[in-house]
Sequence to fold (166 residues):
Amino acid sequence: MGPIRILIINPNTNQSMTDSLREPVERLDYNNSTYTFLTGPSGVPSINNESDAAISATACLPTLLPHLPTHDAFLIACYSPHPLVSLLKTHTAKPVLGIFEASVQTAIQLLGQNGTEERFGIVSTGRQWCWILGDAVRESILGAERAAVVFAGVESWGCEEVGGGG
Fold:
């Protein structure tokens, strides 16, 4: 069996952001994996809200479809509940994951490993993400009941003003 072929997708149009992903990914030095990097062909240069994410998903999907047969897994490199994750899953049974979902799932797996009741939170770059990320954790990843126990919330400048903090 050959190496696992992973397509890493930056869904915005910022090529320098895609280029900045290469070195840390390649430094992982996984012998059984190869990586292809793709930048959004059109859409927005930076994803700053749900509308930007929707625009970028629509712009990226046609470019991604030809890559489905040639790759084994797909990583959406945008720290948001990016709609491209679920959209791409409707076109392939192969693994599709966003870095937001991956980080939350990893945090959940690490909770309580030392025998204490622990919680996790998210630190973000802007107040617009306070509601978006918090709601995504509570509604689509954990569910409200589990989130109330383990999720401390989202912190960023201005979160308190929009009600999205922990």
Q: What stands out?
A: The helical segments are 15-27, 50-64, 83-89, 99-110, 128-141, 144-150, 159-162.
